[in-house]
Each structure stands twice: as structure tokens, then as C-alpha cells.
């Protein structure tokens, strides 16, 4: 699939190659139904296929699932910044996905508390609360905590 992807970059109008690439991704998705984890390259390949076939909801869901799984792995490894990046990639594919949005908000809140408890960084915590509030502008609890932190500065 890597060679096909490179050729597609060189010749993006090659319909035969686009179709072959999409067929390969379909086989990949069908085969990987049995697999528990995906890696970043899986998500990137599926996103590329989605560019070629933007109405393919199966590709969209698989790419979202891949980014979500990578986010979970990042959380397990205590890399909350990377987890945020993975959730953001998933949200780019489906901006109305409330499940992913809630996970991203929770991740920002966890990162804010990490800044407060482990790094004694009010500034870092404020940034994370602002990101969470941007995603959920009606959340009074987040807004209240943000105001409290700003007053401490």
C-alpha cells in the first residue's frame, strides 16, 4: 500500500490506482476486524482512503476508532498531551462526535489537574481548562474553576 500511496501523490488523478488503493484498504479493514489494536499508520492509511472516497462511513469510523485507541494507549502511558492530539484527529473526522468530544474534554481536565498537582503550574492548568471550555462553552463547572485559577494569578 505504501508504493500506491506514493504514486497517488505523484498522480492524484489516476482513477485505476485510486480504486486499487481503496480496494486494498477495504481488505485491510475487513482483515483487521479481528485485531484489537491499530497503530498510527493504520489510521493514516484509512484517512488517505477516506480522502479518495470521502463518503465511505466505514473508513471514517475505522479511522476514528484507530485514533481513539491510540489516545487510550497514550493515557495508559501517562502521555496526556499525545492523547489530546489523537482525540483531536478523531474529532477532525467527525466534529459532531459527542463521545470523542467528551473524552477530549476529560483529557484536558486531567491534564489541568496534572499541571496543578505535579507541576504546580497554574498557567498550564489555565490553558487546559480553556481548551476544555472551548469544547463545552456551557460547562459552568469548568468556567468556575477557570475563574478561580485566574484570580489566583
Could you write a compact summary of the structure shown?
With 153 residues, the chain is mostly helical.
Please provide a written account of the structure.
The chain has helices spanning 2-10, 15-31, 40-52, 57-76, 80-93, 98-118, 122-135, 140-152. It has 153 residues and is mostly helical. The chain folds into two domains: 1-95, no CATH class; 98-153, no CATH class. The mean pLDDT is 82.
Helical stretch count?
A: 8
Distance from first to last alpha carbon: 52 Å
Q: Percent of residues in helical segments?
A: over 70%
* Portion in strands: under 5%
Topology:
Layout: H1 2-10, H2 15-31, H3 40-52, H4 57-76, H5 80-93, H6 98-118, H7 122-135, H8 140-152
Key features of this structure:
mainly alpha; 2 domains; 153 residues
